[in-house]
């Protein structure tokens, strides 16, 4: 993060405290996202206008250009999705806390990805202990964190693999523990810490933002996230979300 800020600001940011660095980076990302999104919107409009112009040309021209126009639209949409991720990076510092049943969030996320898992013959399941207390948390942000982790797990699993989402209580410290487990290749130890840094990715098509968003959201809730390998193989991402000890 320090290197990223230093390159953007042209100076040494090592003396800034962590909260200052995070706030500054969030502002930079928000400004960058808005600046990029404006020309993307303009490009999308002009692609539509170009298609209308092509319709007026002699027959045969539009079919030749249709494939190229579709590629342009697809790439514009992909860039817009990346920009939306940038914008989400600037937001999670504000937590709208309400009572949230973690089991409901897990159920929603698993139902969301059930069709994709089914098409790839991946077993996606949830196991939530009974009687878990509610969290004082931001439902939308927790949902986003779990969505990112499940996407990460599905990408790591081959066909006929397995992804599990589990939730249980932890007495000391007083917390709810959520685990996302997969039957993939596991985590290279040298990536275990760096994978939560912004823009760090080992995938050709990755943006390196998904896991950092998870880290931001969990940190904003006073919790922590870590990545390990299961003894039987595969990766395990563990969230610890604090709750008042009196409710456990």
From TrEMBL:
It is an enzyme of class 2 (transferase). It catalyses: ATP + protein L-histidine = ADP + protein N-phospho-L-histidine. InterPro entries: HATPase_C_sf (IPR036890), HATPase_dom (IPR003594), His_kinase_dom (IPR005467), HisK_dim/P_dom (IPR003661), HisK_dim/P_sf (IPR036097), Sensor_HK_Regulatory (IPR050736), Sig_transdc_His_kin-like_C (IPR004358). It comes from the Bacteria. Its EC number is 2.7.13.3. The keyword Transferase applies. Residues 31-245 form the Histidine kinase domain. Pfam families: HATPase_c (PF02518), HisKA (PF00512). One of its GO terms (molecular function) is phosphorelay sensor kinase activity. PROSITE patterns: HIS_KIN (PS50109). Keywords: Kinase, Phosphoprotein, Transferase, Two-component regulatory system. This is histidine kinase.
